[in-house]
Backbone:
């Protein structure tokens, strides 16, 4: 009974933390509505760890896309 309560609290804490991480990542990766010069200036001011994190997220999106989209089969007419 006590162990179940502890596990439930732990589970809710982990879920809350994961939701916060998802919110932070979603907010940090959404496109800016600023003008192009302002966005460019903001990108130049970003730190190396921020750029590496963004690069990692973009690479992960490409991996997921490549895994979820099947290559079309070529027919004889395509090969002509």
Residues:
């Amino acid at each position: 009974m006590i162990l179940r309560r502890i596990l439930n609290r732990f589970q809710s804490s982990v879920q809350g933390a994961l939701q916060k991480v998802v919110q932070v990542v979603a907010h940090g990766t959404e496109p800016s509505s600023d003008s192009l010069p302002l966005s460019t200036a903001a990108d130049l001011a970003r730190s190396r760890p921020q750029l590496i994190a963004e690069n990692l997220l973009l690479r992960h999106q490409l991996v997921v896309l490549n895994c979820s989209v099947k290559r079309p089969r070529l027919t004889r007419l395509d090969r002509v």
Q: What stands out?
A: The mean pLDDT is 85. DSSP finds four helices and no strands in the chain. Helices lie at 2-29, 36-44, 48-68, 76-79.
